[in-house]
Amino acid sequence: MPTREELIPYIMLLAKPKPGDVLYDLGCGDGRVAIEATLRGASAVCIELNKELVQKAKERARKTGVLEKITFINDDFFKVNLEDATIVYMYLLTSVNRLLKPKLERELRLGARVITLDFEIPGWRPLHITRVSLGYRDATLYYYVKGISNLHEIR
Description:
The chain has 155 residues and is an alpha/beta fold.
């Protein structure tokens, strides 16, 4: 399920991508979030298990003129090291976020921003919650910062 185009501006408002940032999109689909981050100065890493979606993301990045600013990884995001990420975007189920939580806590640097769409990271406290009405349904964005949102988890 792709992230709706109407939500991209809200995601970018939370992520605040800028030069020097590296946005990791876990399950990037067609790459729309990563591409938008690169248009705002960041570089990006698209991680996607589906080879056809990786090709779609590459083609979309090429057409947008940002292909060289994105690294495409056709693999399981559980197998990819996230230590370079300053921003992580995820549109994954709560059950997957729960499984990813130890990886995020182990690999992300302090201060890394994590934005999830519709599904929280269980046990982490979002610093901001944005609800967006899309007419046909509402969407919820959760904004976390490693070292603050998971503080009680570290103790």
